Task: structure prediction
Amino acid sequence: MDPITLATLILSQTGLGSWIKDKMNGAVSAPVADKIIAVAQAAIGSPITEPDKLTEAQQLAISDKLTDNAQEILRLQFADLASARSMYISTQHEMADGIAKTIMRYNLPAITLLLVANCLIVYYIKDAAIALAVGNLIGGTISYLWQERTALVGFYFGSSIGSKTKGGSK
Result:
């Protein structure tokens, strides 16, 4: 299992997934994933290969440790984003701008079409298992497309926390 997926699963099991993802514009970077895994493993004293099999006590211990290390985790995320921005500024970025335009132009219509398709599937497919499986695939795709847009907006315009940090206010 790759580190980003493992870190995301650990966060979801501890109940911190939405809080950390909100702070990081919906995406966990590789350095952040490594830090989350290291903190979680230190909290329970063993490697984590199956986050869904953590006991309630282990989940609580991991949650406490991650909360204690939240500042460091957020600092790593902002450092990764700043690195990407500085590389963008220092290079010819026509390709990146083209990709960004494509994402902004086509993701929202694609999300809309997928929502309509999901409604049609629920209405027309009578086999509940097939409807559920296809609905889950569509839901995952919609989530990915929305996160892609969110990450792009965060990259170009910054996050509210990052902007506050840069400006030195609040």
User: Anything to note?
Assistant: The radius of gyration is 19 Å. The helical segments are 3-14, 17-23, 30-44, 56-68, 70-90, 94-124, 128-157, 160-167.
